[in-house]
């Protein structure tokens, strides 16, 4: 399993930006049948490019299984360029030219520069990353799963974590969590995230 460059994460972590998780209730005067049927997004972002998302999903179906997680990450970087923070875009794009042994370091840097997103999904991102530095490598996957409540996304089970690349799972889940705040994911987006979190523990 790729080692977590946690010292790098903790060193690069910017001051935590508090995330307001409260959800405002729409005034009764604004309630309509359509509004009630479709939950209000709690984060404003541009609409997904449905054509690009569909093309990404179709392309991944025929991609080599070994290459699929990285292809999905790069595809998401292109498709979500206006919907994901710059650190995510840069990290996802760089995966295609990064040796397997350096991928964990690359993703850790992207996470360290997006601590508010980690806080939103995991409660206290800095605390999570610090705790991962103190436990055995074979326990980190479960710690990520439980610490971030990944069962809520329905992308994978806790039992899956022993065979998955922890940093890819964490990055993919953060992408899913962020995009979900803007509304339901397009089928192509979800397929790409699922491909990311399917990355095996050994990417070499």
Walkthrough of the structure:
By secondary structure, the chain is mainly alpha-helical. The chain has one domain (6-12, 49-197). Helices cover 53% and strands 0% of the residues. The protein is built from 11 helices and no strands. It has helices at 6-12, 33-37, 50-61, 68-79, 86-94, 103-112, 115-122, 125-132, 137-147, 166-180, 187-197. Helix 1 (6-12) runs parallel beside helix 6 (103-112), helix 3 (50-61) packs across helix 11 and helix 5 (86-94) packs antiparallel against helix 6 (103-112). The longest helix has 15 residues, at 166-180.
Features:
204 residues; mainly alpha; 11 helices; 0% strand; globular; disordered N terminus
Cα separation of the termini: 10 Å
Percent of sequence in beta strands: under 5%
- Percentage of helical residues? 40-55%
The radius of gyration computed from the alpha-carbon positions, rounded to a whole number of angstroms, is 17 Å
Instruction: Characterize the biggest β-sheet.
Output: none
Uncertain runs: 1-39
Mean pLDDT equals 80
Q: How many helices in DSSP terms?
A: 11
Number of domains: 1
Q: How do the helices and strands follow one another from N- to C-terminus?
A: HHHHHHHHHHH
Q: Would you tell me the structural class of the helices and strands?
A: mainly alpha
Number of E strands: 0
Please tell me what the overall shape is: globular
